[in-house]
Amino acid sequence: MAMNYRVGSTKIVILKGDITQQDTEAIVNAANSSLMGGGGVDGAIHRAGGPQILEECKQIVARRGPCPTGKAVITGGGRLKARYVIHAVGPVWRGGEAGEDELLRQAYLSSLDLAAERGIRSLSFPAISTGAYRFPKDRAARIALSTVAEYVKARPFEEIRFVLFSDEDLQEYEEAARAVFRRHGLSPS
Ligand code: AR6
Predict the structure, then answer these.
(1) How far, in Å, from the CA of 123 to the mean position of ligand 1?
(2) DSSP code, position 189
(3) Which CATH number is 3-183 given?
(4) From the centroid of its chain, how far is CA 181?
């Protein structure tokens, strides 16, 4: 079951699924600064997309060095349905007093900026930082949803998807969405 919202002309979809299977123009990866792959959603994206993605990541690191926390880089999608992968680096949760909220917001904003610059019209996000990086899920969901809702008011997309991997994560997002979108005067469609 998917939950749909509309913010201006942008469709916002919250669903349970596997981000590697999404047919949006781009998908976002929850990467680390090395951009050399890892576990979780990062491992799944590199496995499904094939070696081309890592090859491009290596070239980016050779040119510019590691990707700082809160920033993102873009590569092709290799064998994925998505044409591009945006590799965003979220913060490791350190208790909440180390700027984690703002860094997570920056990871979403950097991804949205890269997509907008490339003319990408549809984009799927995972729940960045909520796995290995242990960011509290409800807090991360509110930051993800409010950052995207605010952004698309000024720079609309066709569709932004939030792809959650478990029932529990989906529920967390649905609850956060009710609160965040109520604040924006919106209800599910
Ligand atoms: N589709 C959608 N979501 C997924 C998938 C998938 N195929 N697989 C996992 N998730 P994590 P992080 C969810 O740990 O916390 C990596 O090793 C997962 O359930 O992937 O940002 C990187 O290389 C969770 O809700 O990312 C970094 O070193 C969410 O994706 C580090 O982990 C994020 O969990 C990044 O940690």
Answers:
(1) 17
(2) -
(3) 3.40.220.10
(4) 18
